[in-house]
Every structure is written in structure tokens, then in C-alpha cells.
Design goal:
Helices cover about 55% and strands about 5% of the residues. The chain is mainly alpha-helical. It has 2 domains: about 220 residues, Citrate Synthase, domain 1 (Orthogonal Bundle); about 100 residues, Cytochrome P450-Terp, domain 2 (Cytochrome p450-Terp, domain 2). Helix 6 packs antiparallel against helix 16. The longest helix has 26 residues. The relative contact order is 0.15. The mean pLDDT is about 95. The protein binds acetyl coenzyme *A. The site of acetyl coenzyme *A (ACO) has 19 residues, from helix 15.
């Protein structure tokens, strides 16, 4: 008898060929460069929709009527106040902490002040998803205030999530164009199939753990430079390069040393990531409006070399490449780029967790054992 079921096909390293769950949220065709949320192309949603509306779409699988949208937005705004003890939790975090590490701790701490944290009913999970969604921007912005020794600012219930976030972060009323730009970034990042952090979230929820644990797991997974952390790595690379005329030698050198260029390549897309196409144009405009043309010019030069050198291998810019110039042009500090990604993706994580729970089976793949068998147990005094 074999130790492994005959249905097991062999090792699929990185799970590239494994379909581990079903979802009605986002559709990706990596060969054609298509991304749709509930069937609607991402470019249309980025242009015409809003983050709150897209979250409603993903969670309810339909666009809301205006009454439904109003009541959904109200639900989010009403849930945005932090439990009072959370302000002390934020104050306890060392100011040197990386914002993603701080966010992971803060979201985990939120569960300690939610009486419903262990209630696994559908209704409770919806309410918790709203609370986490509404409170993550408050945590990110106010951790940034804490580390800069600034007074905390509470969420503004008259503003969109993007607008309220800007106000908490900067202490100033958001301009319409800034709020719209940030809102568009949130729309573009909200969901993307079974990416690593979403997979991590549904592994956790599949054990019938809880929403806070699942989102905490996902934050820890997003932060890696091969996933959401790549947007910060792109910006650091641009800073290291410094000037447009240094791009060629920098990129050629890295490719020769077989090092990866951050913001390029994707497990699923073998043509341009449609989010990168949108962000390219968006960041060019924003960079021009905010005097960050050099950043865009360097990105453009990197893209051209990469297209020439590795484009035919299906390595093109991904969502993180032009996000870096976009966020920088919006005035965000580098270590807030990945938290911005998390602020959006939290709705995707929660949506996938709710879908997983509606038809749950614990995630439990196998590994192929490669060690010895029937090895002798050697007493400790005889081990060399
Ligand atoms: N620069 C240079 N070469 C690359 C890059 C890159 N960015 N990405 C892939 N390659 C090459 C690899 O070196 C490898 O070459 P080889 O076959 O000669 O060894 C080949 O392409 C396949 O690469 P893998 O890393 O095996 O591809 P995988 O599908 O496992 O990984 C990933 C995808 C992680 C995104 C990868 O392309 C990468 O590390 N990119 C840089 C980091 C990045 O931008 N991550 C963000 C992705 S988007 C997101 O998560 C939100």
C-alpha cells in the first residue's frame, strides 16, 4: 500500500497548478490580461466606481442601488470608531516599528475588544468584516501620527474611506483630486483571486478560527517583498538608482547577477497586468501634477529595458511597479505603501473568508516526505 492517496498528482511547488477554492469575486485571465470583479472590467470600475461600491459588489455579487449603497456606506462609517482601549494599544507600539508589523499587531488586538470575535455566525462575520474594513484606515493613519508624536485624529463620518484616511494621516481636509486618486488605488487593489495573502486568510478561516485571525494572517503574508511588499521595494530601488541615466547600468547589472527587479513578473499574468496598465497612465499624470516627473521617467526607462530583455519571457510590470510612483506622488511615505495595499485588500480577504465559510472544508494539503525510513533510534550517549 502506498503512503499517499492515488488521487494525489505529485508535488506542485508554489501551488501553481492547484485550484484550491471557488470564488465569484474576481476573474483573472493571465494570458489575455483580463481582470474583472463580478464580471465587470477593472478599468471601468477604476474610472466610474468607488471603493465602497466595489466592496459592496464583491461581497454581494451585484452593484448596489443608491439606497443600498447609502446604507452600506453608513454601516461602514458607523463602525469606524475604534474601541477606546485601542488608542492605548497604539501608544504602546514602539515608534520605530515597521507600519506593517504594527498593523498586524493592531488588527490582532482589535479582536480583544470585540465581544463577537468568537461568534462564527454569518451575520456576525459580516458585521466583523465591516468593522475591520472601517477600522484598518484609522489604525494605519493613527499609528503614523503616534510615531510622529502627533495628536490622534478620529475618522470623519462625512467623508469617503479614502477622504477620511487622508484627513487622519495629514490632519488636513482632503482635496477632491487627492481623495479620488487614493480611492482609485483602493479599487485597483481590492481583490485578486487566490493570491498568497488571500490564500493565507482562507487557510486560517478554514479551521473555523475567526475573522480577526484570518486577516492578521493575511497581513503577515502580504508584507513579504515577493507579494505586497514589492511596492516599497520598487520605491527603494528608484531611490537607489537616483537618476534616469543610471537606470541602464543598474538594471543590466541586476539581470546579469540574476537578481529580480521588483515590480516585475507575476505568477498568473504572462502579458501586462491590467492594473499596471491603468496605474501607468494614472501615475504619469499624477507625477506631472505633483512635480515627480523624474520618478516616472526612471520607471519608464526601467520598463523599456525590461520589456526588451525579458518581455518575451512574460515578465512585465505588475500592480506594484507603478503603484510606487503613484503613492509617492500622493505624498505617502515609503513604509506606508504596503499598509495602503492592506487597507484595500482587507475587503478581498474578508470576502473570500465569507465565501470559504459558506462551503467550508479545512485546507490541508500534503507534502512529499523526502527523509529516511525505519531509521534506528540511537541512545544519546552513542551519538557522535
Ligand atoms: N525580475 C527578473 N527576473 C524575474 C522576475 C523579475 N521581477 N520575476 C521572475 N523572473 C524570472 C525568474 O528569475 C525565473 O527565471 P529562471 O526560470 O531563469 O530561473 C523566472 O522568471 C520565473 O520566476 P519565478 O520566481 O519562478 O516565478 P513565480 O511565478 O514563482 O514568481 C513573482 C512570481 C514572485 C511575482 C516573481 O515574478 C517575482 O519575484 N517578482 C518580483 C517581486 C514582485 O514584484 N512581487 C509582486 C508580485 S504582484 C503581488 O503580489 C501583488
Amino acid at each position: 500500500m502506498t503512503a499517499v492517496s492515488t488521487k494525489v498528482q505529485g508535488v506542485d511547488k508554489g501551488l501553481e497548478h492547484t485550484i484550491a477554492s471557488e470564488s465569484e469575486m474576481s476573474f483573472i485571465d493571465g494570458a489575455k490580461g483580463i481582470l474583472e470583479y463580478v464580471g465587470i472590467p477593472i478599468g471601468d470600475l477604476a474610472q466610474y466606481s468607488s471603493y465602497e461600491e466595489v466592496v459592496y459588489l464583491l461581497w454581494n455579487k451585484k452593484l448596489p442601488t443608491s439606497t443600498e449603497l447609502d446604507s452600506f456606506v453608513k454601516e461602514i462609517r458607523d463602525a469606524s470608531e475604534l474601541p477606546e482601549p485601542m488608542w492605548d494599544v497604539i501608544k504602546q507600539i514602539p515608534i520605530e516599528a515597521a507600519p506593517m508589523a504594527a498593523l498586524r499587531t493592531m488588527v490582532s488586538s482589535l479582536s480583544l475588544y470585540d465581544e463577537e470575535s468568537e461568534d462564527d455566525s454569518v451575520e456576525s462575520n459580516h458585521r466583523k468584516s465591516i468593522r475591520i474594513l472601517a477600522r484598518v484606515p484609522v489604525l494605519i493613519a493613527n499609528f503614523d501620527r503616534h510615531r510622529k508624536h502627533r495628536e490622534f485624529i478620529r475618522p470623519d463620518k462625512h467623508l469617503s474611506m479614502a477622504g477620511s484616511f487622508i484627513k487622519m494621516l495629514t490632519g488636513k481636509e482632503p482635496t477632491e483630486s487627492m481623495a479620488k486618486a487614493l480611492d482609485t488605488c483602493l479599487v485597483l487593489h481590492v481583490d485578486h483571486g487566490l493570491n498568497a495573502s488571500t490564500f493565507a486568510a482562507i487557510v486560517t478561516i478554514s479551521t473555523l478560527s475567526d475573522m480577526y485571525s484570518a486577516v492578521t494572517t493575511a497581513i503577515g503574508t502580504l508584507k513579504g517583498p515577493l507579494h505586497g511588499g514589492a511596492n516599497e521595494a520598487v520605491m527603494r530601488m528608484l531611490q537607489e538608482i537616483g537618476e534616469v541615466d543610471q537606470v541602464q547600468s543598474f538594471i543590466e547589472g541586476k539581470l546579469e547577477r540574476k537578481e529580480k527587479i521588483m515590480g516585475f513578473g507575476h505568477r498568473v499574468y504572462k502579458v501586462w497586468d491590467p492594473r499596471a496598465i491603468y496605474l501607468r497612465g494614472f501615475s504619469e499624470q499624477l507625477a506631472a501634477d505633483t512635480g515627480n516627473q523624474k520618478l516616472f521617467a526612471m520607471s519608464d526607462a526601467i520598463e523599456k529595458i525590461m520589456e526588451q530583455r525579458v518581455g518575451d519571457r512574460g515578465i512585465h510590470p505588475n500592480v506594484d511597479f507603478y503603484s510606487a510612483t503613484t503613492y509617492r506622488s500622493l505624498g505617502l511615505e515609503i513604509d506606508l505603501f504596503t499598509p495602503m495595499f492592506a487597507m484595500s485588500r482587507v475587503a478581498g480577504w474578508a470576502g473570500h473568508c465569507m465565501e470559504q465559510l459558506s462551503d467550508n472544508r479545512i485546507m490541508r494539503p500534503r507534502c512529499a516526505y523526502t527523509g529516511p525510513h525505519e531509521a534506528p533510534y540511537t541512545p544519546i550517549e552513542n551519538r557522535g
